[in-house]
TrEMBL record:
The keyword Metal-binding applies. It comes from Caenispirillum salinarum AK4. NCBIfam families: DHPS (TIGR01496). It comes from the Bacteria. Keywords: Folate biosynthesis, Magnesium, Metal-binding, Transferase. This is dihydropteroate synthase. Residues 125-378 form the Pterin-binding domain. PROSITE patterns: DHPS_1, DHPS_2, PTERIN_BINDING.
């Protein structure tokens, strides 16, 4: 199988001398920073102690020695330049007060420690296990439709090392139909309650405000919405009222329409800007900043090329100052890059793609195969510790 990807982000020989913002433009939408020259473990600690690198998101085990500066191009796409932090700061100061202030603030967010999310420290990778209580999910539909089976499997995931259990009662695969909230609540509440009573950190995967409230009442501690609280007009005020952590995921369109020729000016930057706006709207509605986690939404309104670019440049999301969740387990792009394997045969590709997220410092991995993910993370951390 041959896959050809045309990236929308291209390298430039140097930082744009004399760069100036278009009149009235927001520097946050024109200029993004991503950590580069990433180091892990002992190398990261030594580099930070020697003032040769900066800590990534406040972690002791990750640091970056360089910055990638991504600048949008007129008409679409972006240029990327990698340079030392000092050079980027000097360049920004030469571009005017607005650019300098934006770059300084983004640097602060890149390095600042992330608060605990749902009581879980963000100083190391966390595993979210997927529990779909549905008859029609793309990978495991019907496997756990019986609540007793779902609870038993969730407890097994906990035993295997899952930090969070993500319970969902509605498939949002491409082309799926909505499930009435009443039916969704019927499916998920017994499972949420059963797992919460055993001490699990439960996340409710829903876009419906009524389901959010019912699940949190039953013991869920996190709301995970694939539409970033845009589907249900009551979702945002409900999450603010419940005062619970929320995962805001990027989606383009709806599950019914999202894969019908999605188009972006520059996928990684468009996703980052959309998530920045949603996080700002959530904070304005009363959601605490420390209760926000971001998810780039791999596979939700993206082509193969979009997915790969977003993964390659996922580090730009650190500049928004929130933990980042990566959910790509068993998704179709893995089969498209390989030999068209069925969803349950995509574990090796899932582990490889998740490692790309670990290498970029993303904090939470959402997976179907918890024991394998836990082992992969433990191995990754072990290698990085020496």
């Amino acid at each position: 199988m041959s896959v050809t990807i045309t990236p929308s982000i291209t390298e430039s020989p140097a930082l744009a001398r004399g760069f100036s913002l278009p009149e009235g433009a927001d520097p946050a939408s024109m200029i993004h920073l991503a950590p580069a020259g990433l180091l892990t473990g002992a190398a990261a600690r030594a580099a930070v102690e020697g003032c040769h690198a900066l800590p990534l998101a406040g972690r002791e085990d990750m640091a970056f020695a360089l910055l990638a500066v991504l600048i949008r191009k007129p008409g679409g796409g972006a240029s990327a330049v990698v340079a030392p932090e000092e050079a980027v700061t000097a360049w920004a100061e030469g571009c005017g007060e607005a650019v300098a202030a934006h770059v300084a603030a983004t640097l602060d967010r890149l390095t600042a420690p992330r608060p605990a999310f749902a009581g879980l420290s963000m100083d190391r990778p966390r595993i979210m296990g997927i529990l779909n209580i549905t008859p029609d999910s793309f990978s495991d539909g019907g496997d756990r439709y019986d609540p007793s089976v779902a609870i038993a499997d969730g407890l097994a995931m906990m035993e295997a090392g899952a930090d969070i259990l993500d319970v969902g009662g509605e498939s949002t695969r491409p082309g799926s139909d909505p499930v009435p909230p009443e039916e969704e609540i019927r499916r998920v509440v017994p499972v949420v309650r059963g797992l919460a009573e055993k001490g699990a950190v439960v996340s409710i995967d829903t876009r419906n405000a009524a389901t959010m409230e019912a699940a949190v009442t039953a013991g869920a501690r996190i709301v995970n919405d694939v539409t970033a609280l845009t589907w249900d007009p009551n979702a945002l005020p409900t999450v603010a009222k419940l005062d619970v952590p929320v995962v805001l995921m990027h989606i383009k369109g709806t599950p019914q329409t999202m894969q019908k020729d999605p188009v972006y000016d520059c996928a990684p930057l468009d996703v980052a800007d959309w998530l920045r706006a949603r996080a700002e709207q959530a904070r304005a509605a009363g959601v605490e900043a420390q209760n926000i986690c971001l998810d780039p939404g791999i596979g939700f309104g993206k082509t193969l090329g979009h997915n790969l670019e977003i993964l390659a440049w996922s580090g730009v999301l650190h500049g928004l100052g929130h933990p980042v969740l990566l959910g790509l387990s068993r998704k179709s792009f893995i089969g498209r890059l390989s030999r068209g394997e069925a969803p349950k045969e995509r574990l090796p590709g899932t582990v490889a793609a998740d490692q790309s997220g670990l290498d970029r410092g993303l904090q939470i991995l959402r997976v179907h195969d918890v024991p394998e993910a836990v082992q992969a993370v433990a191995t990754w951390r072990g290698i990085g510790s020496v």
